[in-house]
Amino acid sequence: MKKPSIIEKGKIEIAGVCGDGSETTKLWKKFCKRGAEFGVKNKNSDHGYEVRSYSGESCKCFVGFSVSDLEGNEEFDRLTLPPSEYAVFEIHVAEGYDSQNEAMDEWIDNNEQGYVQSKYEGEPFVIEYYDERYKGDEPGSIVEIWVPIEKK
């Protein structure tokens, strides 16, 4: 696996829906239905965000769009992530979303820069970022996984 790129992001605000991480498809359908009904105000783009936080064996998932301002999006759940650096890994969907988990964990454990995974509200999390390179299950479809990092 090639090394991830490191990016810096300011505060990320997302309007979407939150639920059980094992029901991601249902969450996206709920978000799309709500989006069609109410519209997402102040959205930055049509790029999708899937924020997964882990507590023991359970996974909570938040799906939606990044917005410049959460105001006006009261029909949606809202999430604000603090500024952070992220290690960005490209996942080729045809190989499966779990195809790089071991390599990502290995990089976090052994990177030469001294990065460790940072947490949000005490829980580890990752962001799956869906931009124009995401084409469902088609060959060549790519999703980025952003792992929040900080120096030890």
Describe this protein's structure:
The chain is of the alpha+beta class. The protein has a single domain, classed as Multidrug-efflux Transporter 1 Regulator Bmrr, Chain A. It is 16% helix and 49% strand. It is built from two helices and ten strands, in the order E-E-H-E-E-E-E-H-E-E-E-E. The protein has helices at residues 24-38, 101-110; strands at residues 5-9, 12-20, 43-55, 58-67, 77-81, 84-92, 115-117, 119-120, 123-130, 142-151. Strands 1, 2, 3, 4, 5, 6, 7, 8, 9 and 10 form a ten-stranded antiparallel β-sheet that branches. It is globular, with a radius of gyration of 15 Å. The two termini are 23 Å apart.
Give a short overview:
With 152 residues, the protein is of the alpha+beta class.
